Please model this.
Amino acid sequence: MPKLSLMFDNKIVKVVPVGSRPVTIGRSPDNDLPVDNLAVSNHHAKVYFEAGRMVVEDLDSLNGTFVNDLRVERATLHDGDNIHIGKHKIKVDASGDAPLAWDTGRKAAAPRIDETMVLDTKERRQMLQQAAAMGESMQFAGTRMKVPTLVVLRGKTDQKEYVLTNKLTVIGKSALATVRLQGWFKPRMAAQINQRDDGYYLGPGDKVPNVNGAPISGPVLLNDGDVVEVSGVRLNFVFRE
Amino acid sequence: MRIASGGVTDLGRVRTNNEDCYKIVEPLNLFVLSDGMGGEAHGEIASAMAVETVVKHCLDVEANPAAQVIGPVEPRWSVRTKRLSTAVHLANRNIFKSAEENPERHGMGATLTAVWIDEAKLSIAHVGDSRAYLLRGGSLLQLTRDHSLVAEQVRRGILTAVEAEKSEMQSVLLRALGAQGEIEVDAEEHTLFPRDVLLLCSDGLTRMVTEPEIAGTLQAETDPGRAAKKLVALANERGGPDNITVVIARLEKDSEGWFSWWRRGARKNLSSNGGTGGN
Model:
């Protein structure tokens, strides 16, 4: 897995892996990579994957983020790059992101469909990069950090807004539900939302919810701005920046 | 919560050996499934090793709560989630070591999906492209992410889910046990609802049977063992190109309140009547 190593005086202070979630860097202790120095902003920068590439983004920091001594707003990172934040250096290790060579005796050009194989690091990166290059143009519109949120438009619930952080979200009266409905005769589990590879799917529970006015017939992929209605509650599904 | 469970593993119609493996440890409410890979019989060795290591570790830590935790854990996790994650790290080390020490086993590996249920909390640890689902209130919810190239491309917005299903690259995994000495394990926990149904399966099922069909079978057939057999049969009817393994666990709410007390009483009366009738 790709790694960031925080260095100070040429010593490694901390190492964090860069996975599916962005790595946040800053002075505030809630960062994944906290850097305790006054020259560093509370939330200074973040590093994440976008279309198969590791990207660093400056979060409007006071003193700036530098990659190999160039000040950047946003830049693609490569193996061996150095990010400078204040007096600290962060070394970028983009290698080792996948299992090692699988079946070295049999380097088939194209894997057969019935035979499971594990990609080696280099192959994996090339494949993802090629695929990313093809899908690049359509990629960029929607790849900023987006937080899926349910905003309550109508009805009684225990909160006004819910950020969907889990794979499973239950809407209902149950004490175990994430979005808790209040009032008489509300179902324990009215509907549910499942985070999957390509997005968030709304599915029926004890009730069949409406999406944009029409009842759903099975799990449906929610789009930014969709209005979900179930058991007298109206919720707006939005991606927040 | 009471749990009824059952599982089936099947060769399929094309393969000559079954590289899938599963184990249900009822006293622990532990469910483990693995799909092996590698030439000769080595896929079988790898998946069996994966399942055995996880089961053994979970049994051991019940007796020895001070056992060491391996791999990154989140502080908010329950003890069982930490142990389950540790067990998967151990399984990876064992398979990797065995492949290093036995050159003929080089290249063997396995997926692993393990679920440990403790009252209303479900702990899950997962590597590879076997899957765990929950059927809840009529919806089939996926608990795991496939560690395959196509799934990764879907997550990055490069492929759509439909394109991924048609891709010829479906068998390319990005993560599996045994491929390298240390591995990243997906571990999580979820709150369970009464009447939730858990399903673990190898890709031999999900490549041949659609999710609505899986949901329908789980709703129509409430006996876990019979439901598992039906799903396996469906995959075989469509060619059964790969080994198929299905494990099902149904949560049944413990009877509570005066109504069930009354029902229990009624059942007791019934059985004693039956006893008298037999005499």
